[in-house]
Amino acid sequence: MTFRLSPFSGGPMNRILPTLLLTLTAAQAAPPPTLNVATGSPTGTYSAMFKNIGQVCTQSAYLRERGTSGSLENIDLLLNNEVSLAFVQSDVLKARQQIDKDPRVENIRTLLPLHHEELHLFARPPTVKKNILGKATVTGVQSFADLKGKRVGAWGGSLITARVVSAMTGVPYQIVSLKDQPSAFAALQAGQVDAVLAVVGQPATWVKALGGVQLVAVPSNEKLSAIYAPAKLFYPNLSAQSVPTIAVQSVLATRDFKTPDKKKLLLDYQKCAMQKLVNLQEDEGMHPKWQDVTFKSWPWPQYK
C-alpha cells in the first residue's frame, strides 16, 4: 500500500506552510526605510519646501526632517552618513570639491535641483558726522566695495559663499563665523561686525521682520557668473526699491545609494515631486520659491 502526505493533513507540510506564508507576508508588508533629511532653521526656505513636498507626495511619510544651521552642516552630515538627504547650496558642493579637494563629494548626487537663493548683505545705516567746519563725513558700509578691510559675519553655508565671493570680486574682508542668524545680527548691532552676509531664498520670513538695518547691493562680474546668477531683492521693510544681488542654485542632495529599497524610495520621491511641480507652484500656502523651480537645470550630477 502506498501512502501519500496530504497538505491538509496534520503532517510536517501542514506546519511548514503557515510559517512560510507568514514570513512572505511580513516581507511584503515591510515598510520602506525611514531616512533623515537635513534642512535648516524651522522658519527657513529649506524646511518650508521639504514640508511642501510632504503635502503632495506620500513617499514623504518615510522621510524625517532634521533641523540644522544650514548648508555647511548639511553637507557634513550627508558625507558622514548621519543623514540620507540634505538641502545644500551648489557653491558649497563646488567649494568642497575644488577648494577642499574632498574626494567624498564625488559620491554626492542631486535628487532634485531646486530654487536660487539670494545673497543678502546687511549693514547698519550709514552715520553722518560733521566737523567744526560743517563738512560731512559718511561712515559705514554703503556699497560692496566698502567691505574692504571690514568684518563680515556669516553662518552655515553663507561662510563658504562669503569666502568665494571675496576671492572672485577681489574685495578682501575678514569673515567672522557666527552660530546662527540671531547671533549674527546681535553682533552687527553691537558693532562686533560691520556687515552680515546671508544666503537665503527670498522672501525669507525672518528678513521681513528685520528693522534698523539696510540691504547693500552686491554687483556681479564675469568670474561670479560662472556660479552665481544676477538677482534682485524685494523687501519693502528694508528698501523702497529693489536691491541688486546675486543668487546660487540650491539642490536636494543625496549619496549614490545602491540598496534596492532605498533607491526605490528616493526615485519614487524624485518622480512624485517632478510630477507635482504645478501643484507645488500653484496650491495656496506653498512657498513662493517653487515658482523659481524648473527641474531642468542640474548644477550637480543627477541621482538615477
UniProtKB/TrEMBL annotation:
Keyword annotations from UniProtKB, A to Z: Receptor, Signal
Signal among keywords: yes
SUPFAM superfamilies to which the protein is assigned, alphabetical: Periplasmic binding protein-like II (SSF53850)
Protein name: TRAP transporter solute receptor like protein
InterPro entries: TRAP_TAXI
Stretch forming the signal peptide: 1-29
Keyword Signal: yes
